[in-house]
Amino acid sequence: MRNHFLTPVLRQQFTLFYRFGYTFVPDALLIPFEGAIQQSQKDELLKLLSQITPFEYDEEYVILHLQQEGELKPGNTKFEIQQLTTVYPLSKHAKLSISQKIDDRIVLGEPLFESSLAIAEEFIIKQECLKGIEALWEIYLDEATDKDQVLALIGPEKIFHGLDLRSKGKKASELEDEEYWAYLLTYERYDYFPKERIGYFFDAGQLFAYSKEIAFEGSKLHNLLTQLFSLNQKLNFEKIVEKIENDPLAAGYKSKSQFGELKLYVLAPLFLFLKEEIRNAESFTAIKGSPAFSYAKTTFPLEFKAAIILLGAFFKFKTFYDEYYNILNLDIYQAQPQLPAVKAFFKAPEIDTKRLNGNEKEESLINKDLTEGKEIDEATPTASVPQQMEHQVISINTATEIGQTTQQFTEHTISADDVRMQEQTLTPELEILKEDRTVKKALLKERGKSVSPKTKKESRVGKIKTIEQLDLTFAGSARELNQSDVQSGVPIIVTEASESIQQETLLGKEQKVKPASKTDKKKSEKQPSINSAKKGQMSKATDKNDSILGETLELVTVPEPRSNSQNE
Amino acid sequence: MAWMIREDQLDPDQRDFVNTESRKVGNIWIKGFAGSGKSVLLVHSLRDILRKEPNAKAAIIVFTHSLKDMFEAGLRELGISNKVPVMTYYEFVDKRHDFYDYLFCDEVQDLPSRVLYAMQTRAKKVIVAGDSNQSIYDQDPKWRDATVDPDSIGDLIKARPFMLNTIHRLTRSIIVAVQKILPSINIWGAKRDLTKVDVNIRICEASSTEEEIKYVYKEAKNGASIGDTCAILIPTAKLIIKFVNELLASENKPVWNVVNNYYGKPDFGKMNRHLKSNGIKAQYIGNGNGSLTDAEVNRDIIIMTYHSSKGLDFDNVFIPFVNSSLYIGSNKVETLFMVAMTRSRKNLYFTYFGYTHDFLDKFKNDCTEINIANLLKPKNPQKTVSDFDF
């Protein structure tokens, strides 16, 4: 029976698929359908687009229509290029752009969605805004609880709405019956107001007038600001605010420019001023340390916090990630030690020359131990694995966010049978990870050193859980792996809060651990250690806020290298 | 311009070029609208090549001295300025006869065919950048050769085209207007970048030419007075003289009686002196007259032709006389008009008296329409409607 599937892939993956003639797709990314694409499949695709690595431009992903005879086997499915029926771009302009760059014999399909693509994009944009806020807050401020309070005070939805209007090309002067935040976020100066600080107070007056649908020029506030400017062009923010707070000409404006505790007559010019500072700089790094920010922070603390929220959302994560990552001091920024050559443990399957030579006899693929020159028959994996060998499982957060540090990892002891099952279902990607861990283990062993103090503190010990009790989700081979564990019903030791994991942790031996202090934890969150990266584990979110999807992937560490005798 | 680029900062087209296209064998023509990052990609490819082949002999060929300065600055920033000469195409053809491993060339659409032929025969690999939509010159100023037919560039240097479609410099409203004037070109903005000031396009109707010029001067003077750069763009020298004299008349100043220079052309230097002596805060810039720096320092309004404005941008741009009888040129009129209307960073004013020009009709529904007569009326503050004391 012929089955049809839709799957979103990065365009680069499609290019490689075309170049090599085959690709692998995890089953979680395959949407089955009857051959004619219905709205339900489009909806599923849109949902999937919100659950994979985000994209900035429509042409970064394409949707493939693949066909296969028979049922899918669990895990990664290999597709040959002949099984690819159609390539669908995400939008019309993606189609145009892609068609200019690919083999002109390829006839692209009509985009599956045009306007509804905005749903997936909206999700990505919101994440960009929220992460922009998080990053900018982290750069200038500390108290995370304050951030949530200030964000809640303004209301994230109001911010998203204002930015959405902006994305549709709306200008503040064209809005009607919108909330103040929409005017503030869509406002740009098209009038010839002074370039000095007071100009931003003219801006605030203008956008206030737009929000009330009244004229600004000729108003008392306009007159006051004009007078002030004619008397002193160099008035600083504090002086102008003082005038607005005390001059009768601004009394009406002031009384209508409060939002809870927030003084909008301070926030608006402050936001617009800092916005210009960031916009006009060659990069955010160039103005990050500008005195304007420290002045605003100390002079108008609450309004500064609100401005940070608005600026973070306005410029988004794209503007700030560079500096933010510096603060996080990402593991990947650390120089990695040069790794010594180690025995290759995992081997590429050798070509079955007998089959190529026309030998009809079915034989299993033969793996050759490249190091020792021994042959391992994959059809009989039991022969290659010691029966009582311990293996470790490290938890990985699959909705991985850069900057999440390793707060804990869980270790599971599983039986040799499980390992054999896992090895049969491991995907190439996981094999690479396995291989990587083997190399790192060998390095640690060679050095004879224990893992870093930070890792010691962050690790947790020792409850026993079955795999069903773990946070299992997400796609692809890893899920298959876990499902096989579940099926096997193997008890798994989950280690938590370990006190002092020795180097042997990675080698499958026992460990002792001590709970981490709060301070240590916070410090370690900000400065992830190189060792956590070396160990190959990734972070596991401790609460919902730590991850987008809150999903966890289980990664199996490698078993001890097999001995020659066992192989034989 | 930021010359150092990282992969995470590139758009997909640029990433394709850097990672794949530039590494393939054969000559390449990078096609892209202004602001699509062509020049940066040229330099990036050059740096990439020099990393792999430090002894490769390479050069950059450009059209103008300002482009030469720009590339030299970029190469300095990347620390490779001593390895790669930057030259105008006259220098390349007339003064140097070396053979190169790699030749890079920007604004290829403005070159005569003989330069392309020379590049093809004197280099192992040629990478050029340009945009046929921006070709506004019919011939080169020195040899008087016809500029290359954009359709034949690929054949002349045996180059495969590579398209850059995302425009990072222009904002939404301008891209929409350009697409309506030149529907055949495929350009779009970086749609997620909403942080730029979207240019405010105003279409302003006057009840007379005098009123139109009065309004343009008043608004431009307002902008210049606060330190904005303001340019009034006019398609021909003849129309510039008309504008200046109407302006002088509206300000009750003596008109300028055209005086020709040694070449029999209007002496715009003398016109500038006339404007200055009559207190008009404007100067003509072009053909060696006037100065951008001087205009900026003195907060003067800049008057120039559409042609001269290519490659420049200003805070506020005024395009007057855009009525049905406007004469823009004999050919490439859409391109010339597009060049003029893409010069603004903040405000773009089209003004007219009578019926709007066909080009304006194509996008005027997307713009703010203004009646100049209403704006020039004195304002009555008492009419401010407010339910509170504002």
Automatic annotation (TrEMBL), chain A:
Region feature Disordered, mapped onto this chain: 505-568
Ranges of biased composition (kind: Basic and acidic residues): 507-526
Top-level taxonomic group: Bacteria
Protein name: Uncharacterized protein
Organism this protein belongs to: Adhaeribacter rhizoryzae
From TrEMBL, chain B:
Keywords, in A-Z order: ATP-binding, Helicase, Hydrolase, Nucleotide-binding
Domain (+)RNA virus helicase C-terminal: 29-139
Residue ranges of the TM segments: none
Domain of life: Bacteria
GO cellular component: cytosol; DNA helicase complex
A GO molecular-function annotation: hydrolase activity
Domain UvrD-like helicase C-terminal: 291-353
Pfam families attached to this UniProt entry: UvrD_C, Viral_helicase1
SUPFAM superfamilies: P-loop containing nucleoside triphosphate hydrolases
Gene3D superfamilies named among the record's database cross-references: P-loop containing nucleotide triphosphate hydrolases
InterPro entries per UniProt: (+)RNA_virus_helicase_core_dom, DNA_helicase_UvrD-like_C, DNA_helicase_UvrD/REP, P-loop_NTPase
GO terms, biological process: recombinational repair
Protein name: DNA 3'-5' helicase II
Organism: Adhaeribacter rhizoryzae
